[in-house]
Amino acid sequence: MAELDYRSCFGAGQDVEVQKRMLSVPKIDNLDDLIRELRKAFATDHVNIDRVMDLMSSYKSNPKDWMKYAKFDRHRDDENSFYVCKYTRNLVDEGNGKYNLMLLAWAEGQGSSIHDHANSHCFQKILDGTLREIRFAWPPESSEEEEREMEVISETTLNTNDVNYMNDSLGLHRVENPSHTQTAASLHLYCPPFESVLLFDQRTGHKTRGKVTFWSKYGERTPFGAISAKLDAEDYENN
Ligand SMILES: [Fe+2]
Q1: 180 is in an annotated binding site
Q2: Where does Fe cation bind (predicted)?
Q3: Contact (Cβ atoms closer than 8 angstroms) between residue 128 and residue 63
């Protein structure tokens, strides 16, 4: 797995290698083009992080392309505070079984728990609005009784069309929509796909395993009853 903070490459701006690489990126006019090119990029088992980042950067977000996947849920005022303020995960493409491409819809003020990425690559492109990413160091292995505040490594603001990369070797993170007046949407690619993640308590460093599920698939709402019957609310990061 490559260990690369891609933003440092892109931030350089003058980097000739990056400019040369971008010249090899095909024209991507819409989300369907991006989906097609991503499938090609994952045709082999080798994950070329630069290539995927370039493709996602090349696509300029157009709400007409992705609006049907952007299903917000502002009404999760369940008594269980664990899953209040959770974004929704909406499946866009299964990438021939090699990855999941999904749109995350963040209503005002919604955010994720601190989580790992199950040894997968995580690519993220902001489609609309602004997201804040807070990265944390992995907490040291400790006993159940020991409690230690998790260490913040960095805080980054991601704006529309920014692309970000994350994997477990870079730490853990929480992502949130800091705006209380605007929604946000982001496109995420996880390779390989995963069904559960580790969730962390910032105050204690304690972790639990949570399942991840889809709020909708291909623009259609996932039947909620089938999910809620199987899972306790505390059991999952999102649905
Ligand atoms: Fe994440």
Answers
A1: no
A2: 115, 117, 173
A3: yes
